[in-house]
Every structure is written in structure tokens, then in C-alpha cells.
User: Which sequence fits this backbone?
């Protein structure tokens, strides 16, 4: 690879042996420098080498999941997250969190807001370990038919938390336009001619799927593609849109971005913020609560479509 040559995201993906969508996430997060020529994105060879050096031996996937805090010793992580007013770590993958972070940055330009694009269970574990300040969850508990609270109680024992609603979202199947294979129920995933693409373990979508399979007494071994995983709703939808899979599970908002996809609604989910109760009185978190109630933020979320904000900012539970 020449440092004097620029590469497309697809070429960068081949060089780093990661997906094209991981490349875009790295660019979005500022971990991989890129520039635009019109609508085209290009990455210099020197910037690819710089990214590889900064990764310090991590695999590309580990580098995507890790934040700069992950290379600190546990006692340093806790100090960095909770004693310093210079940085706050926000975990979750939904675009609404990017909007929320931008609003916080306007109010606290001196604070470094770090975004970690990880799933629900990993986010709760990061909060438990002192590696995050605000995390999101959409974990359905089939025993209680409740979202998030049972998982928070199990995964953060002895740590009082506050669960605050961000939005409600519709979870369902992504299928090709016209749904020619008539995929409408969980049992349809076992059809011999249906290729499924799954989310990674620990994500809310994966928990929903596995719980529904258990309740319906469906063996995951009967699902073609169950072990094939992608890290985001966008990657799942794109794979179905390209014809590389027949069906995947994700949120309605993402499906709206593809003209050749249909969306089969299955389950309305509650997407919540989880923070420590002890942090609730801190200025940054008081500002977060104010933003959730502000017309400007709520109108911005409404404007992008696909979300129910009827309970946004409401405290769902304290554990």
C-alpha cells in the first residue's frame, strides 16, 4: 500500500479486512481521517497507516468497539469518567444519541464527549465497570414483558441507577421489496429458502430474537444464517437490500433509508438511557434532562421520523 495514494471506503475495508460500514463508522468517529471530493469519500494511505499505528495491536473490530478509555487501567478509567469534568462517555448506536451529544457539546464546549457505538449489554457492563457515564438499552425481558429494568437490576447489582426514556422504536424484519418469500413471523425464519443475517450477541435485537425463538420453541440451528452477524442495523439492512440475505432484524428508521426494502413491524421497543443515580444532580446530567424536554431537541428527533417521543425524558424507574 502506497502512502501517496488515496483509497475508497471499499478499498480501505479490503486493506483492513473489515466491512465498509465499519470504515464509515471509523470516519464518522474521527478515528480514521478522510476527505470528500464532491460526494466521494477518500482516505490517504498515510492516514490508514496512522490509524493502524494508533490501534496499538487491536484488531479493526476491537478498535471500533473500544474507546480511548479502554487502554487505561481500571482505576484510571473510573477517575477519567467520574471525577473529571473534562470528558463524558455516551454508549449506544442510535442516531438520536449523536443529536443528543451535539446538543450537549453546544452547552459544554470544554467537555470532551466520547461516543462508543456498542450494544445494550456491553453498554450496561461498561457502566458497571466505570467505563461509561450514559448508556442506552433496549433489552426485552420475556418473563415480565418489560424492557430494560430487569436487565439493569441484574447487570448492575448494588449500583443505584436511573432509567430515562429516550424514544420508542419499532423493531421488525427487513425484507426485499414486495416480500416475495412472504416472511412475516418468527417461524418463517426456518423456511429452507430463507437466508437470515443476525445481530451480534449482546445487542437488543439479538436478545429479542433469541427470546422469541425460545418462546416459540424454534431451534436456532434451523435458521440458515443465524451465525452470520453484523454490528449495526444499517449493515443488516444493506445486506438484505443487496440481496446477500433475505431477512434481518432491525428498527424501522433504518429501513426508511432504503428504497428497495420493505419493513415488517413486529415489536415496539422502549429505548432508554441509563445513568447512575449519584450523577443525576451533576450539571452535565441536569443539562441532559433539560435537553430531552426542550422543543428544539424534540422537534429535531421528530423531523427525522421513525420515533415515538411521547415519553422522552420521563424517568421510567430507579433501581
Assistant:
Amino acid at each position: 500500500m502506497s502512502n501517496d495514494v488515496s483509497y475508497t471506503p471499499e478499498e480501505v475495508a479490503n486493506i483492513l479486512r473489515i466491512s465498509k460500514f465499519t470504515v464509515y463508522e471509523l470516519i464518522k468517529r474521527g478515528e480514521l481521517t478522510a476527505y470528500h471530493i464532491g460526494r466521494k469519500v477518500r482516505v490517504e494511505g498515510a492516514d490508514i497507516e496512522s490509524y493502524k499505528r494508533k490501534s496499538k495491536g487491536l484488531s479493526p473490530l476491537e478498535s471500533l468497539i473500544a474507546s480511548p478509555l479502554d487502554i487505561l487501567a481500571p482505576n484510571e478509567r473510573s477517575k477519567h469518567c467520574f471525577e473529571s469534568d473534562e470528558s463524558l462517555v455516551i454508549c449506544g448506536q442510535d442516531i438520536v444519541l449523536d443529536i443528543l451529544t451535539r446538543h450537549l457539546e453546544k452547552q459544554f464546549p470544554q467537555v470532551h464527549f466520547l461516543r462508543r457505538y456498542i450494544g445494550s449489554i456491553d453498554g450496561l457492563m461498561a457502566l458497571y465497570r466505570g467505563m461509561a457515564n450514559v448508556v442506552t438499552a433496549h433489552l426485552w425481558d420475556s418473563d415480565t414483558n418489560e424492557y430494560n429494568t430487569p436487565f439493569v437490576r441484574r447487570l448492575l447489582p448494588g449500583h443505584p441507577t436511573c432509567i430515562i426514556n429516550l424514544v420508542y422504536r419499532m423493531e421488525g424484519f427487513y425484507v426485499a421489496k414486495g416480500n416475495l418469500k412472504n416472511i412475516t413471523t418468527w417461524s418463517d425464519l426456518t423456511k429452507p429458502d430463507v437466508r437470515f443475517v443476525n445481530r451480534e450477541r449482546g445487542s437488543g435485537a439479538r436478545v429479542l430474537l433469541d427470546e422469541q425463538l425460545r418462546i416459540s420453541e424454534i431451534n436456532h440451528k434451523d435458521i440458515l444464517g443465524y451465525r452470520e452477524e453484523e454490528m449495526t442495523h444499517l449493515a443488516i439492512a444493506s445486506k438484505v437490500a443487496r440481496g446477500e440475505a433475505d431477512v434481518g432484524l432491525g428498527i424501522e428508521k433504518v429501513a426508511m433509508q432504503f428504497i428497495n426494502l420493505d419493513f415488517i413491524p413486529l415489536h415496539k421497543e422502549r429505548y432508554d438511557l441509563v445513568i447512575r443515580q449519584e450523577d443525576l444532580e451533576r450539571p452535565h446530567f441536569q443539562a441532559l434532562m433539560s435537553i430531552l424536554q426542550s422543543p428544539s431537541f424534540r422537534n429535531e428527533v421528530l423531523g427525522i421520523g421513525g420515533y415515538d417521543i411521547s415519553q422522552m425524558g420521563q424517568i421510567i424507574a430507579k433501581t
User: Anything to note?
Assistant: The two ends are 52 Å apart (CA to CA). The longest helix spans residues 95-107.
